[in-house]
Every structure is written in C-alpha cells, then in structure tokens.
Amino acid sequence: MTHPFLDLAPLTPAHFAAIERQVASLLGTRQDIVIMQGEALLPLEGCIRSGARPGSTALNVVTGPYGQTFGNWLRDCGVTVVDLAVPFHTAVTAGQVREALAAHPETDFVSLVHAEAATGNTNPVAEIGEVVRAHGALFMLDAVASVGAEPLLPDAWGVDLCVIGAQKGMGGPAGVSAVSVSERAWQRFAENPRAPRRSYLSLIDWKERWIDGGRTALPHAPAQLEMLALQASLERIEAEGHETVMGRHSRAAAATRAGVLALGGGLTPFVHDARDAAPVATTLRTPAGVDASELVAKALAADPALPLIAGGGALAAEMIRINHYGRDATEDVVHSSLAALGAALGGPGATVDPEAARAAVTRAWQLG
Fold first, then answer.
1. Is domain 242-367 given the CATH code 3.90.1150.10 in the classification?
2. pLDDT, tens digit, for every residue of 291-329?
3. Fewer CB atoms < 10 Å away: N or C end of the chain?
4. In the CATH scheme, what is the code of domain 13-239?
C-alpha cells in the first residue's frame, strides 16, 4: 500500500536547486543561497563558527534570548564579545550601534536578530545595516521570525549572512532553514582556519561540494518532506502575494495591540512603542498578582488551538505571547485570542470589556 508521505521519489539536485532559487526570489537577493537540513539554529551556529575569527572582536546586539545565545557561541570561538543589550521592551537603534562600533573600532563581526518573536520587538535593520557597512564589519542577521512577515532586503541592507526559517511568518516547516551568503562572507570563511569543515555545521562544504560543483550532486540526502513543505510555503506566499502576506501580519499586530488596550483587565503591551513591535507576535505584560502561565492555561482550556503561550525563562510569570504568524495572522485569530484572555481574566473585580476589544480589533483591521 503506497503512502503519500513515505513513498516519494528522491529529491533530485535540480529540484533542490529550484527551491533555492525560490528562496532567493523571496529575499530579493543575488547572493548564494544554502538550504540547510535542520532547524535554523543550525545555519546560525554555522555562520558564527565560520565567520568568527579567534582573537577578533564582535558586536553582539541583544534584544532577546537569541542574541544571548549568539554571544555564547562567539565567546566559544575565542572572540572578544561586546554585548549591546537593550531592554526587551524596546528595539535597538542605529545610533546605539554606531556608538558601540566607534567605541570598539576593531570590531569585524556584528550579529543581530531582526524580529524577536520571544519578546515581541523588531529592529530597524536597514538603518543598522548602513552603519555596519560603513564600519566594514561582516553583518549576520537572524531573520527567522521576520521573513515573510515584514520587509527583508539583505542585499539592499548590506547583510552578509541572512538566516531564515519557514516556521513563523512563512507558515512552513520548522525542520529546514536557509542562509544567503555574500562574497565577503565566503572569503571570510575561507580565510578562517577555525571554520567548520567536513562537518554538519560547515557552510564551506556546501560551497565546495554543491555550489562550486555546479549544483549537480548534493552533499547528503536532503530532508525530503521538509524540502517539499518549504517549497509549498514559498508557492503559497507567491500565490497570495508577498505584499498581501506582510499586510496580514501588520494588520494582525496592529489589531491585537488595539484590542488589548481596549480590553482592559490590566493587560498591557510588553513592547512600549508600537513602531518597535514585531508583526509576528504581540507580547503582553500581565497585571500584578496574575501569573502569566496560569492565565494562558486557563485561556487554552477553552480552545487549545489558540496561538497563546507564556513567556520563557524569567518572563514566564509576567509575559503572554500571542503568536499571530503564518496562517494565524488573521482577524478571527486575533478576536478569538483576546476573547479567551478576557474570559480568563474575568471574575469578581475584573474590569475587562470584551465588546470594546472586539470593536477595536475590527476597526484596526479595517484601517490596516
């Protein structure tokens, strides 16, 4: 008996290369695309271990937990790390990056997360890229959460390493990821004796065995189902229109924020300024005395499918995240999520107004 998920013809090199071209088209890049067979932490670590030279200095921008992870990897590579950390309720500015680079002119590597789904902020990459390019450092961007949901232009912004994953704004699989690599980055990798080689982390292996070989023989067997799912998500974005997809995410973020402010009950946006808020997720601070994990559990008891989650680590007790990305970037999901949170907050002494929230969401979505 055949099975549509199990009895598939092998993914050919030509098919694999075609999916690479679709990724390049989505990013509007002429840089080489490497699709790696694993979750996005694989190319992120591969980029750092390939591009970070022992004894050098890196500026690591920390606007959430992933920035903290990058700093740890950089230190493990023997790099002097300058952490530019800003409060998680805001975004970093190009001015702050410029000041940090001026204070450490020896910096030759900069790492930044575009949108932090975990904390709900997004950073002004275009302006930051201009600063980094003027300084001459290699620029690595984690665009896993932002791709598909907001503008992402690695070539125009001077991004040397742009890492994406499909599981958020693209509405695709989590088990495959990609990175665009500039010529400057390839040169850095080649000159770095510590860059991984003959390793699953190695980007150089992909260049030597796949790109330089004319894309005729894959280095190893691809994750077939994930590759097909990645292609399906790319085709779905193309069919809907990239601008339309980004518009849905922008509307979802604006409507969620408006609805929360109208709902009351002590919930407030975690990211203070709307311009710093990511389109993929809205983070909320719970009122004093209300545990975020307990509130989320109560809300999900009515509808487990809602994209609600408590914050991670130290934020688990005070932060709620509404993940309105991919197929959940819709008006109905925003309405349902806020209705569930309002019901969970309801009770003696509660001052929630679900009807006001519903009206605010509808109005904000229409204004879009």
1. yes
2. 999 999 999 998 999 999 999 888 889 999 999 999 999
3. N
4. 3.40.640.10
